[in-house]
Amino acid sequence: APPRLEVRDCIIIQLEILKSFVMIYAIREVNQRKPRVLPNFTIGYDIYDTCGDVDIAIRAALQLLKNQSDPQSCLVPENNTSAFSEPQTKVVIGERYSEVSTAVARILALSSVAQISHASTSEVLSKKYKFPSFLRTVPSDAHQTEGIVELVKEFNWKTVAIVGSDDEYGKYGSDRLEDHFTNANVCIEFMTILPGDFNQNSSLLPKLVEKINDSSAEAIILFTKDTYVRIIMKEAIKAKLNRTWIASDSWSTSSKISSLKDFGSAGQVFGFIFKRKEVPGFKDYVTSVFNGTTNSFIKHHLTRYKPCLNQSEENEEKNCSRTNTQQCLHPSCLATHLDQDESYSIYLAVQVIVEGLRRLLKCSNQQCERGPRFTALELTSEQVPFINERPSFSQVVPGSKY
Amino acid sequence: APPRLEVRDCIIIQLEILKSFVMIYAIREVNQRKPRVLPNFTIGYDIYDTCGDVDIAIRAALQLLKNQSDPQSCLVPENNTSAFSEPQTKVVIGERYSEVSTAVARILALSSVAQISHASTSEVLSKKYKFPSFLRTVPSDAHQTEGIVELVKEFNWKTVAIVGSDDEYGKYGSDRLEDHFTNANVCIEFMTILPGDFNQNSSLLPKLVEKINDSSAEAIILFTKDTYVRIIMKEAIKAKLNRTWIASDSWSTSSKISSLKDFGSAGQVFGFIFKRKEVPGFKDYVTSVFNGTTNSFIKHHLTRYKPCLNQSEENEEKNCSRTNTQQCLHPSCLATHLDQDESYSIYLAVQVIVEGLRRLLKCSNQQCERGPRFTALELTSEQVPFINERPSFSQVVPGSKY
User: Fold this and answer.
1) Which Gene Ontology CC terms are recorded (chains A, B) (predicted)?
2) Quick one: which of B350, B313, B306, B302 has its CA closest to B328?
3) ipTM greater than 0.85, yes or no?
4) pLDDT tier at A332 (50, 70, 90 boundaries)?
């Protein structure tokens, strides 16, 4: 099994779990909204933690495809090898990493179950002939890579270095950057593709840090997942590299990076994120669940990662700036970080599903004309206009952020 | 679903099915050999036709992973989401295409079932952290691409063109060729990556043929699957391109290509194949099954694709040269084509499995010390020395072959 990130930092876990809270909140809001959006229907959900691991994600996908209404039924029925039985799960939200999303997409396509990722941006996922039931609420990296090149040209930088990784996100992203920079006559001093088993003990790590240190590149672009960036940045901080970095969306606002101590000594960062909006009503919801909730999933996690309810104002201030990652955030601090993460993309995924269901089931606010019997393929085939719009272009976050 | 090749040509089907015959023959030979190789054990098998399609192959893999001894058991047991139940299938031979092998490898890895491909050469499959239970009896394209560059240098060609495809075989292969040629100061006049939905109606096809026609490249390298090459070559023959082509292993001896009429007007071909040996005793076996067999699989196919038993000597001669692909080959002709295909790699895969079993079960020629209860992981973990040897280098087939 591939190495997994050891994350014991409380703030990181708190912020990651908040993403699940967003989905729960969005579904709850749809189920409770007045006038009703889906009269007579209630949306349910299962949550699986894939740990960002392909194997675990495939298992989870297979589990979801099982016809859950009949626990004895087999995934591949004996007398019907040509198709899966119709799964109870009609749509899947996720995964985060493109590598995991592609593996899951292959499985879900077998049953035509729609998959909506809130964060997987790899260009490869745009290929409909390979991933016919995959959708997403974030733009393809085709746009982000263009943006990075525009940024470099804007600053009139002549040489850059690229660090990618050997997965769907880092490989397609850095290949595309290479094309763009070559066309723009920007010199690529070096391009390093991290192997899929890269970790803090890789012999490559000290070599890479040395290479960056020796390099005259005016900007170092790290186009890879946040777990890898965290490993590199820890060393960059130690070595006080003091360079200019360009962050792809995966780590520009990742709590795994922003929670690193003394980040400033690594240098300054220009990060790309997608246009984000506040999830309407979510801040109030987060604050309210800390004062008591009936949701068992949220209850469970609040018990394990207790927010710091009894701290003084001074401590709150301190924690909001995330200087101590071992200590959990105050609820009011948690909320201030929400705008920077993937919350809105997750919220949007739920809205897309609801709009698809409204169209398929022919719902007004009073009633739905169709009953609950429909196939996953019917839902996947529904055209929801706003998911087909050209995505809003990514924007630059000032380097002063960190 | 991706477009599928329409193959009605009898010779092609005959030769493709012969590959299954090789596996059946090899297993039968192991079960019957005296002195016994696996005393008290009989190897069984299931054969699935994946049609080279990822979806069908994933379904087949899932079917194989089911604990077949208990048809009511589910793939993912209710109370055990951390692992699949131990499958009855302990090892899988295949797939042919690298793209399909990677998809299947992801699934089989979940149960640690060893997979031995007889034909998938993509470099990506060498990554153990991604494909921990994948093995193969053919060398990685790391070697073949080096060989192609050596060939070009040998002829002192200064410009080449590369046609790859957007799958694990064609993408990694052409990327690697690009690196090698750049290092060798050979000019790449153009490189075209065919999309995954490439077919004879693609608008890209006439453009590509025109591009090749206009190009001054001294050799056109087609590093993609035989089904795509067949589409391109049909047009190249029509347009009488008369160029020098370099064939990767996928099509250098493929019956899908060699059965094309008037191949010569497309030009001359230099093809790469892997060192091949005759499968000991297989020719006699093929001839004998035409005189009556008890194997139901072989019987079924012999009924559907009747060999031409009553033709005159003259006709036999004609058919051996494959000029008429609608007419089936005479059994004696079939046998003459066997050395050129993947037979030996398939035979070798069976031998590797047998050697692994002998070691795991601690067998002498008289008895095996262990009983039949072992896990897929135990077999996968067995070190079979000859599969770890550096593969024999590919060799050049003279262009005069076609």
Assistant:
1) plasma membrane
2) B306
3) no
4) low
